[in-house]
Structure formats: structure tokens, C-alpha cells
Amino acid sequence: ARVGQVIYLGNKMMEYDIPIVKPIGGHGIFVDAKKFLPHLSQDTYPAQTLAAEIYQDSGVRTMERGIVSAGRKANGENYYPKLELVRFTIPRRVYTQAHMDVIAESVARVYENRKNIKGLKMVYEPQYLRFFQAKFEKL
């Protein structure tokens, strides 16, 4: 049933022209934040920005998989991963089809407003696990 929900959500997102990673996975959907927000540089954290915008719109929690998760080199310079993704993981036996509709509709609303999204700046970075504890402000 979960795989069916994931496929349903992926297809709904594609109906709204949301740039997702294909093929659709078995446990979740990955949205391509670089394609979603092409006007943002990696230094403004596009995947983290997208995750925050979706959370503010709908309360749906996602996971950034990009520059924030990649961390820094020993010299303090950011790693710049090729991908900036936002992961929508769907647990088994928890959500209904209506929940999948709410998620897709929220992402579509954020997508419609994408040109007004400016990115984030990191205002606090812990020594370890910055993707869990860092703090950001909107630009």
C-alpha cells in the first residue's frame, strides 16, 4: 500500500509540473530543489529553503539533502553536492490518499510562488550535525 501511495503522490506532483527525481521511489519522493528554485545559488540553501517553505505552507515536514547535509571540509569551505533534493518520506500505514493530496497541493502552491522565494542564510551553525541544529533566517 505504501508503494502505491508513493506512486500516487509522485504522479500528483508531476501533474502540477513539480520537478521530481524519476523513477518514483518505493519509500518516498525526492523533489529537485535546483530545478524548483533555479534562481537560488547553493549558498542560499535551495533544498533547505524549499523544505521550510513547504513546512510553513502546510506543516508537512520534509528532509533537506543538499549543501546543509553535505557539511564542510576541514578548511571550513562548504561541500557543494551535485544534487539539492527535498525528501518526502512516506511511512507505512499512517497516511491516507487525502494526506497525499494535501502534500501535493501544498507543493503546488509553493511552486506557483517560487519566483518570490529568496533563500536562507545560516545564522547559527553547531560544530556537529548542522543539518539537525543549524538555524536560518529568510533573505
List keywords for this structure.
139 residues, two-stranded antiparallel sheet, globular
Report what the structure shows.
It is built from six helices and five strands, in the order H-E-H-H-E-H-E-H-E-H-E. The chain is an alpha+beta fold and 139 residues long. Strands 1-3-2 form a three-stranded antiparallel sheet. The mean pLDDT is 95.
Strand content is 15-25%
Query: How many beta-strand segments?
Result: 5
Structural Rg: 15 Å
Query: Ends: how far apart?
Result: 40 Å
The secondary structure category is alpha+beta
Residue share in helix: 25-40%
Shape: globular
Q: For the report, how would you describe the main beta sheet?
A: 3 strands, antiparallel
Summed up, the helix count is 6
Low-confidence spans: pLDDT under 50, at least 5 residues? none
Topology:
Elements: H1 2-15, E1 28-32, H2 33-36, H3 46-58, E2 63-65, H4 67-70, E3 85-89, H5 97-112, E4 120-124, H6 130-133, E5 135-138
Antiparallel strand pairs: 1-3, 2-3, 4-5
Helix pairs in contact: 1-5, 3-5
Give a quick rundown of the structure.
40% of the residues lie in helices and 16% in strands.
